[in-house]
Amino acid sequence: MEHTVIGYIPQLLAYLPVTVGYVVASLLFGSLFAVLLLVMKLAGPAPLRWVAEFVTTLGRCCPTIIMLFLVYYGLPPVMYSLTGVDIEGYDPICFVVVSFSFFLGGSLSEVARSAYLSIDAGQFEAAACVGLTRLQTLRRIILPQLVYLMIPNLGNTVQFLMKEGALTYLIGCIDLTGAAYLINGRELSAYVLQVYLALALIFWVISIVVDWLFAKLEAKVGKGYAPTAKVKPRRGGRGAGGQAPYKADVLKIRQATQEVSGR
User: Do the beta carbons of residue 174 and residue 18 sit within 8 Å?
Assistant: First the structure.
């Protein structure tokens, strides 16, 4: 059993937290970076919009492996020359997170921008008709729809990170793929097929789990927030007509939007 596909799976799974760790961290910091770029694109002056567009293009067009090498070999001397801080000895996972966050910032900002522009602009005017401020409209009406529209692309992004993370062992980050590389070296490449079949099975299961989680999330968020969803009264809920407050706002907005459109 030791040199079979099943036998290698536990050895590889020991490094699964590393892969999950840099994917989650990259999503977190990449999302924050994407929000900054989105604000610059939608509300910033022309120079900031140009900078945001340049950063987005650079992050999306540069191959992942080149970005990893640029950050891993280029960031330490730049940081040392600017701040005097030596980061050359940091764990390679830090450079992986920086690289993926830079890529995600550009990609997610475009996903969010397209989702934002796809939402009916008349909802802001309709929200004012029912007494909501612009901030309340963004938080309670626009943002839930924006999240719903972004979920499919976000799921694809997670899948992309899991696959592109297979390159991180090239800069010394020992994740699932890096562990497979080490095992092959230890076994003198005598069981390469078994090792990589075990790795493929792990990634296959992870992909199924990620797809299932995002499908559940999309179904949950889409109740009342999807552009075509109908809001039904719910007993015991707070807000107009016994509905949950956010969903009641959505219903008001859509009714007011129809009135505004009919003028």
Answer: yes
